[in-house]
Automatic annotation (TrEMBL):
PANTHER family registered for this protein in UniProt: POLYMERASE-RELATED, RNA-BINDING PROTEIN KHPB N-TERMINAL DOMAIN-CONTAINING PROTEIN
Domain Flagellar Assembly Protein A N-terminal region: 97-275
Official protein name in the record: DUF342 domain-containing protein
Domain of life where this protein originates: Bacteria
InterPro entries in the record: FapA, FapA_b_solenoid, FapA_N
Organism name: Halodesulfovibrio aestuarii
Signal peptide: none
Length: 580
């Protein structure tokens, strides 16, 4: 009957059969008091007399041997195992070192082929002095799995203690990511690993974070019944208890029924987490460089403040301002406001800085900068192409321009042009008459339409005088005619632009190298020999070039009419007039 209930024996049976005349399947657990079999070779077993031996004192063999019959009886729940050439019964319950969990290997049959019950495991736990309750649901699920698969389920946590709940601050969890990933590109498209998504705009009254209150402090216990008291968290003198994440500006909270607090944005902006504080802000601060760690910085709201540099190949885009504490090294900037760069702009002519405001930098080398207003630098401009809607200035005497092209709408004011270490620059003042021509064309068209309407209305009034019209109709027609004439006169006075040009100037405060080109409204002056200074102005069609010689202290003015064309688009002075 026993052989009928016993599962098929595994390969290891031949190993144990050398030493034991087995009474069951050695791959299944033995229960306390059950007979394992008869010992064939006692040298491979721990005898009762050896228990007190100092060498074997720490050895847990978990069986006893009847020396009269050499029968072996298990004293714990476990499976046969060979350790140091000795046969032992290895327990199948494993208390964790911290005493908070007991793991068990769950079998559905025992050594004799009988069903293993919850009571067998409970007795083994009691033998280990464990008094924590068994997780019956987990245990029963493991028993069913072991029976269906005919294999034991290893390391099932069947007993757990209760950890003490200490006094902790509440936890604030963000509900939105700081960045939104771009849509996944097609497999055939090139993947840009620098593009880590953009910092999205958070609309007003959007939930951005939730505060989860901490549970009430309570004592706990381990699986052996030992108490685990609550540990008090002392607060340093003069300091308040703080949460792991603080709530910053532009947020308001609403308490929920479950005790949680949901925080909403009070205005439109960017969600920023900095110095453990969550805020809604118009300025995104990037600590350190823009590099492979941060990826490209793209925001849809506010400004960007970078405490480091923009490293090669990375892009920063913002609808307002961009502030960089260090340099821009072969990076790209595009913004709707001003660009402030404390260091240098160093590029390889593959990157561009585009600003709808002004651009300020310490030095520019191989830079391509386009600004709607002004470009200002305190250092030199080398091999660069700068385009400004208003002015380009170097604000110190170190601001020499070498081998660059500067295009401005009204003024170029630099410390020096060209020199021994670089080729002379090209300085261009753009002709902005396109807007004036457009306004003049619109005015002319409006006057023409009104004149035609006035003529038709006048003819209709003259023809209608031959007919009998009511006084009110004739009076109404006269009123319309007067109003049309008044509108035409108003447009003529207010819309027609003044043909006079605004003040345009090119000022070079220091040395002007030979070959420097200055272009104003399509006419170019090429410097034929070095000059100590140069000032060229245009206002209401009156142009003059002023040059000053530092050695003699005299100043001379050459009027525009005194320049003659060479046929190559150049101008040169035909005669000089001395001022004062």
């Amino acid at each position: 009957m026993m052989q009928h209930n016993a599962p098929s024996l595994a390969e290891e049976e031949s190993i144990f059969s050398r030493y034991i005349e087995l009474s069951g399947n050695p791959m299944m657990p033995v229960t306390p008091g059950s007979c394992i079999g008869r010992a064939l070779r006692l040298s491979h077993f721990f005898l009762t007399s050896e228990v007190g031996d100092e060498k074997e004192q720490d050895q847990l063999h978990n069986y006893s041997i009847d020396t009269a019959t050499d029968k072996i009886y298990a004293t714990t729940l476990g499976v046969l195992h060979i350790h140091n050439n000795k046969i032992v019964v290895r327990p199948i319950l494993y208390p964790a070192n911290d005493g908070m969990t007991v793991y068990g290997d769950i079998y559905h049959k025992d050594f004799s082929g009988n069903s293993l019950l919850l009571s067998h495991y409970a007795a083994a736990l009691w033998h280990l002095n464990v008094n924590a309750p068994i997780d019956t649901a987990r245990f029963n699920a493991a028993i069913r799995k072991a029976e269906s698969q005919n294999t034991p389920v290893r390391m099932v946590p069947i007993c757990k203690g209760k950890p003490a709940i200490h006094e902790e601050p509440p936890v604030i969890i963000p509900l939105l990511p700081q960045r939104k990933r771009h849509t996944v590109q097609k497999s055939s498209a090139t993947v840009d690993f620098k593009d880590q998504g953009f910092f999205a705009e958070v609309p007003a009254n959007t939930p951005v974070a939730v505060k989860i209150p901490s549970a009430e402090p309570s004592n706990g216990f381990d699986v052996y019944g030992n108490a685990l008291p609550v540990m008090e968290q002392p607060t340093p003198v003069g300091e308040n208890k703080t949460t792991t994440l603080n709530i910053g500006k532009n947020l308001y909270g609403i308490l929920q029924q479950n005790g949680h607090t949901i925080y909403y944005s009070s205005c439109k902006g960017l969600m920023s987490i900095r110095d453990d504080t969550l805020s809604i802000t118009d300025v995104l601060r990037i600590d350190g460089d823009v590099n492979i760690k941060t990826g490209n910085i793209i925001v849809e709201q506010g400004s960007v403040h970078i405490t480091g540099s923009i490293t090669p190949g990375f892009t920063v885009k913002a609808p307002q301002h961009v502030i960089v504490h260090a340099s821009v090294d072969q990076g790209t900037i595009s913004c709707g406001g001003d660009v402030f760069i404390s260091g240098a702009i160093i590029m390889n002519k593959l990157n561009t800085i585009l600003s709808k405001g002004s651009v300020y930098a310490n030095h520019m080398h191989n830079a391509e900068v386009v600004a709607a207003h002004s470009i200002v630098t305190s250092g030199s401009i080398v091999n660069s192409k700068l385009t400004a809607g208003n002015a380009i200035r170097t604000c110190t005497e170190k601001g020499t321009v070498l081998g660059s092209t500067l295009v401005a709408g009204s003024e170029i004011n630099i410390a020096g042009a060209g020199g021994e270490n670089g080729s002379p620059p090209i300085l261009i003042i753009r002709n902005n008459e396109g807007t004036q021509n457009t306004l003049r064309r619109i005015t002319s068209e409006a006057e023409m339409v009104l004149s035609q309407s006035i003529s038709k209305l006048d003819d209709w009034i003259k023809k209608s005088q031959e007919k009998k019209l009511t006084g009110s109709m004739r009076q109404h027609a006269d009123t319309l005619l007067k109003k049309a004439k008044r509108i035409r006169k108003n447009i003529s006075n207010r819309v027609t632009p003044c043909i006079a040009h605004p003040l345009h100037r090119v000022i070079i405060r220091g040395t002007v190298a030979e070959g420097t080109q200055v272009t104003m409204h399509g006419q170019t002056l090429t410097i034929k020999h070095p000059l100590p200074k140069l000032s060229m102005e245009l206002e209401n069609h009156h142009r003059a070039v002023r040059s000053q010689t530092t050695g003699t202290g005299t100043a001379s003015t050459v009027a525009l009419s005194h320049y003659a064309s060479t046929g190559r688009g150049e101008m040169f002075p035909a005669q000089a007039e001395t001022e004062g």
